[in-house]
Amino acid sequence: MTKNLNVCLTPALLPLYNVEEYIVVVIDIFRATSSICYGIENGAEAIIPVSQVEECSAYREKGLDYLLAAERDGKVVDGFDFGNSPFSYTAEKVVGKTIVLTTTNGTHALHLSLSAKRIVIGSFLNLTALSNWLKTQHENILLVCAGWKNNFNLEDSLFAGAVIEQLKTEDFVLDDAAIAANDLFQLGKDDINLYLKKTSHGERLKKLGIEKDIEFCLQVDITTAIPVLEGERLVRLV
Amino acid sequence: MTKNLNVCLTPALLPLYNVEEYIVVVIDIFRATSSICYGIENGAEAIIPVSQVEECSAYREKGLDYLLAAERDGKVVDGFDFGNSPFSYTAEKVVGKTIVLTTTNGTHALHLSLSAKRIVIGSFLNLTALSNWLKTQHENILLVCAGWKNNFNLEDSLFAGAVIEQLKTEDFVLDDAAIAANDLFQLGKDDINLYLKKTSHGERLKKLGIEKDIEFCLQVDITTAIPVLEGERLVRLV
Predict the structure, then answer these.
(1) What cofactor(s) does the depicted protein rely on (chains A, B) (predicted)?
(2) Interface probe, candidates B151, B157, B173, B197, chain A, greatest A C-beta count within 10 A
(3) Cβ contact (<8 Å) for A154 and B180?
(4) Range B198-209 average pLDDT
(5) Staple partner for B71: which of A148, B53, B84, B207, CB 3.0–4.6 Å?
């Protein structure tokens, strides 16, 4: 069977796709989906992605043992436990916990994809585990790049290209965006960190003083968990 | 002065830009902007881009000596003189004439850009003439890819990358889309026709039997005219 392997370069282009015909992979390399992969790998019970900071705050009132994480414009929002730095998602901090998370781009992309057949989370951290699982699915696949405030960004597209690299031997039809993403990956793959240094987001994140986060998020295959959305919660796919 | 050199990968992303701060270059390589460049080069007095087929028809009623051109989904609309094949824009057909043109993607992108400081038309045909002129302007530049029904396509992005290649020694700040477009151009530049053969649009156009048009549209620097929008008419920039 011929399946489509498509890349949605920014959430602003999602209306062009019949999302309900796809398994969606949400991609926000710096840093939401990297941190989600790391947190689930490290034993977080679940991560609940919410759109608004207020929704995140509301969980505080519920009096339960939630960790609240809110990021806007690359910074932890005042009054929250943490944002989306992967170093906040270590085993000692998250094991057994449920984290409520809102971010500038990643949770936005996820919420726009809710009608998908299934939503999973991708990052360089779980690249091969994710790709291997995708190979076993007999569905169209849409790689949704979270971008930056609806703008195209290179790091998310490059990762989409890395997934395509692992899948393209299979029976998939690629759209132009998938071809482009994969070609960009070919250019960047030998030193992704170096390649991304020239990008706008790299500059922006550097100003925020999170180079260590960036380095962390570009590690390939250090995790094997695939976070999947079940109801409103991201949990480990079993 | 630092200027922005940005690429809008599809018209669906135009709302992300303050178009009024830019000179906009509209790009629809297969085939609208290639044909516009060729028609203006060959002595067409003006080309009037309109959004709807009905607007185009309306010019027939005006009883004047207009050539009416309408294309949808790659084909000439029934009842029209011609569509957007460059071979309809030869000197013998267009010299001294005013052409009213509506196309699937190109005129759409143009109309969304109307608030720009200036709108000019780009294609491989006038690549260097256009780039040289852009170098003399002290303005931000937005390269608007018409795409295919708001989807990203490779041929328009590749051309954006070709323009950037000529401008990037200048004092421009590139966004991620501009970096990506230029990188894709690096991959394709040695044989653009071959590179584009793998794209979806290439397949689509091949089915329409217009390989000769495609070959024509990928000729570099065979024209020097720069079509510019004056009021509602595209005319030769002087």
Answers:
(1) Mg(2+)
(2) B151
(3) yes
(4) 69
(5) B84
The pLDDT, as a whole number, for residue B205 is: 67
Q: Kindly state the average pLDDT of the residues B80-89.
A: 91
- CA distance, residue B88 to nearest chain A CA (Å): 28
| Chain B residues interacting with chain A (CB cutoff of 8 angstroms) | 9-10, 12-13, 15-16, 149-154, 157, 174-177, 179-180, 183-184, 186-187, 198-201
CATH class of A3-236: alpha beta
Domain ranges of chain A: 3-236
- Can you tell me whether residue B173 is helix, strand or coil? strand
Q: What does the DSSP 8-state code read for residue B125?
A: G
Interface confidence (ipTM) of the complex = 0.94
CATH number of B3-231: 3.90.1560.10
Residues of chain A with pLDDT under 70: 63, 200-205
Counted residue by residue, chain B has a size of 238
Give A43's contacts (C-beta < 8 A, 6+ positions apart).
A91, A94, A95, A96
The CA distance from B112 to A61, in Å, is 46
Phi-psi region of B158 (alpha: psi -120 to 50; beta: other; left: phi over 0): alpha
